[in-house]
Specification:
Layout (H helix, E strand, L loop, with lengths): L27 E3 L2 E3 L1 E4 L11 E3 L2 E3 L2 E10 L4 E10 L3 E6 L7 E5 L7 E6 L4 E10 L5 E11 L3 E4 L4 E4 L3 E4 L3 E5 L6 E8 L10 E6 L6 E6 L7 E4 L1 H4 L5 E5 L6 E9 L9 E3 L1 H6 L10 E6 L5 E6 L2 H15 L11 H4 L8 E4 H14 L5 H12 L3 E4 L2 E4 L3 E6 L4 H19 L1 H13 L2 H13 L7 H13 L3 H10 L1 H9 L5 H6 L5 H17 L9 E3 L2
Parallel strand pairs: 1-12, 10-14, 23-24, 25-29
Antiparallel strand pairs: 1-2, 3-6, 4-5, 6-11, 7-10, 7-12, 8-9, 8-11, 13-14, 13-22, 15-16, 16-21, 17-20, 17-22, 18-19, 18-21, 19-30, 24-25, 26-29, 27-28
Helix pairs in contact: 3-6, 7-8, 7-10, 8-10, 8-14, 9-12, 11-14
């Protein structure tokens, strides 16, 4: 006979044994409260929860709820925490005299404590349950049962494995596979640990597939010190994934969670979490708004990313902001639509919470009439905590936003999202920001003169130290280190400085230094960036497609 040790959730709830099986220490938890159970046959407290042999099968007592649990809405699940080895277990869910029991096999777990969640149809009544084996050998324990929210995935928690009943997980020495329920509007979320290994660039192959159609796509997942998560959308893959295979590389890769989530389809103001590769190639036909799609960066969730349909939409959202925050000669000024007409903003944008709050506060205090898109932007920022309201006034929250546009050609979209992405990191990572200021302060005076002229030529307010340092790190990191020299020597601003400044001017002398000066400072900035984020110059991508 197998002994199943039944542990109570709350030690204070110790119920006396009754020969009629009226009370049990093994409890059913609903809404964080223990619900009284009966068991049949009733057994002694010391033997409570044991399996007994009947008809050649080991089985638990039948557990009945004193009051049936009414399941009146979708999204509820029966929860059972157990461990088992050497046999297979099944659970029978009883739904009253009018309906047949539902029998569900429980995943084998080699003795690891596992919580299984079995989705329940609504409306229905749950009156009780029983657990039994398919033979008379093996070992296992039951720990707790109850009702909880439905879960479609697998997650490694500190004290147990949480797994949905429709999920299959297989782990071998160098590969793991997760089979998940298929949802037409679902997105697969993966959480994992993928540490770097010295200077080696790790790339772990991942294959996402759809079992019904046979479609599949292979990606390479790369490590980052900012946290490892990945959201797989059909709008990026081209199909809804329901099977994931990943190499484990002898322990380098460790899965923390795999889950199918329902994509937010109703509210276009709720951001879709995504990596930068997915955002660049997300099918525009799947956008929730014709004007833009809203994302949050999976590596830095406090950064919202707007991908706009064209430059016109982008300008209506951000052009006035650009002049108010960054444009030389206009900072702090709210320009009217007539004053903005004919002026160029940017083809990509970035704004921190403090500047966004300042913009909207000034508009409120001045009674300034903003356009529809700017009012929508304000609501999005408030909904997502980038802004807050205090005493009727707009205040900064946490984070910021960046924006790119579908009107930009592909190669520029990639460069823009890297450039703007480094701004997002600068906004939200205080340690990295301090490191950037230190790098700027280490520049020789001639170097600082060059860069301030460079940014002035590009219409930035070069007297704003925060803005200058932020742009310095972004320009240095927007391309790979080896491409920095050619980029800056051929840039229009550099040529203008050389042609229009006195040859003895410090900025010109900096430019005329030996070939390699830009690569030198780009390499230094790259090392700073990598140590803080795990990313490299010219590459903020968590995944790349297999060729």
């Amino acid at each position: 006979m197998i002994r199943l040790s039944i542990l109570p959730l709350f030690i204070s709830f110790i119920f006396l044994f009754s020969c009629q099986g009226e009370f049990s220490r093994f409890q059913f938890i609903q809404d964080s409260q223990p619900i009284d159970l009966k068991e049949h046959p009733g057994i002694k407290p010391a033997e409570e929860g044991t399996f007994f042999l009947k008809d050649g099968k080991l089985q638990s007592p039948v557990y009945s709820l004193k009051e049936p649990a009414a399941i009146e809405e979708e999204g509820k699940a029966f929860s059972l925490t157990y461990s088992v080895s050497g046999t297979s277990l099944l659970v029978s869910l009883h739904r009253g005299k009018e309906r047949d029991p539902v029998v569900v096999p429980l995943p084998e777990n080699n003795g690891k404590r596992t919580e299984i969640r079995i989705p329940l149809d609504a409306p229905t009544l749950l009156t009780g349950f029983q657990v039994y084996a398919d033979g008379e050998k093996g070992a296992g324990e039951l720990f707790q049962a109850g009702l909880d929210s439905a879960f479609s995935g697998i997650k490694y928690l500190p004290d147990r494995i949480l797994q949905g009943s429709m999920v299959q997980f297989t782990e071998k020495t160098e590969e793991m596979e997760v089979v998940l329920p298929s949802l037409s509007d679902g997105v697969v979320k993966l959480e994992y640990v993928l540490p770097g290994s010295g200077t080696e660039e790790l790339k772990i192959p991942l294959t996402a597939a759809n079992r019904a159609t046979g479609e599949k796509k292979t990606l390479y997942v790369k490590p980052s010190s900012s946290g490892d998560s990945l959201y797989l959308y059909k709008e990026y893959l081209g199909f809804a994934p329901d099977r994931i295979n990943m190499a484990t590389r002898n322990g380098d890769f460790r899965l923390l969670a795999a889950e199918v989530l329902q994509k937010a389809t109703e509210d276009e103001r709720e951001p879709l979490p995504a990596d930068l590769t997915t955002i660049l190639h997300f099918d525009q036909a799947g956008w929730r708004s014709a004007e833009f799609e809203l994302f949050s960066w999976n590596a830095y969730p406090r950064i919202l990313i707007f991908d706009t349909a064209d430059y016109s939409v982008q300008a209506r959202l951000f052009k006035r902001l650009a002049f108010f925050v960054e444009k030389e000669g206009y900072t702090g000024t709210l320009l009217t639509n007539d004053e903005l007409r004919g002026k160029h903003g940017w083809n990509a944008h970035d704004y921190r919470a403090e500047d966004l709050a300042d913009f909207f506060l000034h508009a409120d205090e001045a009674g300034f009439s903003l356009n529809r898109e700017e009012l929508v932007l304000k609501e999005i920022l408030l909904d997502n905590g980038i802004l807050s309201m205090e005493g009727g006034n707009v205040r900064p929250g946490e984070g910021g936003l960046i924006s790119i546009s579908r009107e930009s050609p592909g190669y520029l979209r990639e460069k823009f999202i890297i450039h703007e992405g480094t701004h997002g990191i600068f906004f939200t990572d205080s340690l990295y920001r301090e490191m950037c200021f230190a790098r700027w302060d280490e520049l020789p005076g001639e170097g600082k003169s060059f860069w301030k002229l460079f940014f002035a030529w590009n219409n930035y307010d070069s007297d704003d130290r925060y803005l200058v340092v932020n742009e310095y790190q972004a320009y240095m990191l927007q391309q790979h280190v080896k491409r920095a020299e050619q980029y800056f020597r051929n840039h229009g601003a550099s040529r203008w400085i050389k042609l229009n400044r006195d040859p003895e001017d410090g900025a010109v002398r900096f430019f005329n230094e030996e070939n390699g000066v830009f690569e030198k400072y780009a390499a230094e900035m790259d090392e700073t960036f990598h140590s803080a984020t795990g990313f490299r110059a010219g590459d903020l991508f968590s995944i790349e497609e297999a060729e």
